[in-house]
Specification:
The structure holds two protein chains of two kinds. Chain A is α+β, with helices and mostly antiparallel strands. Chain A is built from six helices and ten strands. Chain B is built from twelve helices and no strands. In chain B, α3 (about 70-75) packs across α4. The chains are: A alpha+beta, B mainly alpha.
Chain lengths: ~210, ~280
């Protein structure tokens, strides 16, 4: 009898665990640590040819930045996200910033560009403030939603979607591509780093980008 | 209300300051206190206030480090809090539970002639206990173990049970005073604790000095605040393991050693007095 009661309690506990805690984050996790490819890179090679999108965005001091012109000449890591993002954006940017520092790669050797997919909340000041937590040398860009959607479409990526309220009570969560895209100095997309890329992966790939994609 | 079985890291789960009771923790707490009281009732013995306080404090320590928020933060968000949980289970809960167990209860649970005691005796021989404790310490702090086990509630529960179990085995010979239970005395006891404090430096040093975050679980967890650096968190965890864990052990070593030295001195003095009084040199008042 006592054994049955204990087993019942245990079963109840496990069934409750299934309906678990807070709602999960906005964007699905796409990787949990990468493995080094046969070519020695952690970033995954792109099978289709894509180039820097032909769109004009605005810098945080409201200067126009045409991606396929302004970003040529230097290897670039491009990431679409938003400053209220609770998980993927700060994790990616923190890992990149830390790896840049550790490998002593300057932002002149590898440019890091953050494009906001949340024009409503992400004012230039807010983008600057957000990026300052990682590195003030990262380039923050913004634009109207249709321009962002166009830029994403040129890279075969879906546009941002509202995914419902942020469990922290900070407005809505926005679904967005979770990968960082790497472009060489000629503006060709070469590799992607999905969410789950760790600092140990970046410290291998970033210096290689600076060396081989310049 | 959100309810879960046990605290664990859930990849991608955004941290929210909203109470989430862990049912398993409450089951364990009720079982530990309930069985302690029931054992006394069955034996017809009154509860010894001093020992009961220790037992309850041990159970409370388990609850504090396993319930929300410390349990959840340590299991899936902050390596520092993860180490606080380890220290709580190993250096607070386990010794209190052992100190709160009366001799008669131990005799009842583990009669000297029983097979159960034979197993416990084998595990609590000090070289075995030292090896076991450190094997669990090293094994459960390997990145592969943390990133595999701590992301599920059952795995996280298993790690906690391993920590508490290994700590109970390890503290047993150092704390039990009954000679038939294999308790060790100074200076072996001091060496035993000293060896553990030294071995603990190894994982702690790895945490403190690794140039990269070792655990994907903490590195990829949604940050609690902007600008959070998982490497700093890990370094702090290593320092905490060294300082707090080391402090507890070194304090016990120092107290034990001073007591031992005092007892030795007293024994020498008694022997001297006995010699002198038999020779008629000291006249007892």
């Amino acid at each position: 009898m006592r054994g049955r009661l204990a087993a019942g309690l245990l079963a109840l506990a496990f069934s409750l665990s299934a309906c678990s805690v807070a709602p999960s984050s906005s964007t699905a996790l796409t990787a949990q640590g990468l493995t080094r490819g046969a070519d020695g890179w952690y970033g995954m090679p792109l099978t289709i040819e894509r180039t820097l999108p032909s769109v004009t965005l605005l810098s945080t001091d409201d200067r126009p930045v045409r991606l396929d012109e302004a970003l040529l000449g230097t290897p670039t890591l491009l990431f679409f996200g938003y400053s209220s993002c609770p998980d993927i954006c700060p994790i990616h940017l923190a890992a990149i910033a830390s790896a840049m520092k550790q490998t002593r790669t300057s932002y002149d050797q590898v440019r890091v560009v953050f494009v906001s997919v949340d024009p409503e909340r992400d004012t230039p000041e807010r983008i600057d403030e957000f990026l300052s937590y990682f590195s003030a040398r990262m380039l923050g860009l913004h634009a109207d939603l249709d321009v962002i959607v166009d830029a994403l479409a040129q890279l075969d990526l879906p546009g941002p979607v509202i995914e419902g309220p942020d469990p922290r009570g900070e407005g809505d969560l926005i679904g967005h591509p979770a990968q960082v895209i790497g472009f060489d100095a000629d503006g060709r997309a070469r590799r992607v780093w999905p969410f789950g890329t760790r600092r140990s992966d970046w410290v291998e790939d970033i210096p290689r980008m600076a060396r081989e994609w310049a | 209300m959100n309810v879960a079985w046990w605290c664990s890291g859930t990849p991608g789960q955004v941290w929210v300051w909203r109470y989430t009771p862990f049912l398993g923790v409450w089951v364990v707490v009720v079982a530990l206190i309930g069985s302690y009281v029931r054992a006394h009732r069955r034996a017809g013995r009154p509860l010894d206030v001093r020992l009961t306080r220790r037992w309850v404090a041990g159970v409370v320590a388990i609850m504090v480090v396993s319930e929300w928020p410390i349990g959840a933060l340590g299991a899936g968000y902050l390596a520092t809090v993860g180490i606080v949980r380890y220290i709580g289970l190993t250096f607070v809960a386990a010794p209190l539970l052992i100190a709160g167990t009366p001799t008669w209860l131990l005799d009842r649970m583990l009669p000297l002639s029983s097979r159960r005691w034979a197993v416990v005796r084998a595990l609590t021989r000090w070289p075995v206990a030292l090896l076991l404790f450190n094997a669990v310490l090293f094994g459960t702090h390997l990145p592969g173990t943390i990133d595999t086990l701590k992301i599920t509630q059952l795995g996280s529960f298993a790690v906690d049970v391993a920590h508490l179990g290994a700590a109970l085995v390890w503290w047993f010979p150092a704390m039990r005073r009954e000679p038939e239970r294999g308790g060790i005395r100074e200076p072996v006891r001091a060496f035993y604790l000293f060896a553990s404090s030294m071995l603990m430096f190894v994982p702690a040093t790895f945490l403190a000095f690794s140039p990269l975050p070792l655990y994907g679980l903490y590195e990829l967890a949604p940050p609690l605040w902007l600008g959070f650096d998982p490497l700093r968190d890990q370094q702090l965890a290593g320092v905490l393991m060294n300082t707090v864990g080391g402090l507890v052990l070194w304090t016990i070593i120092a107290i034990g050693f001073m007591r031992w030295a005092k007892a030795e001195e007293r024994a020498d003095e008694d022997a001297r007095r006995a010699r002198h009084s038999s020779a008629g040199l000291i006249r007892e008042p």
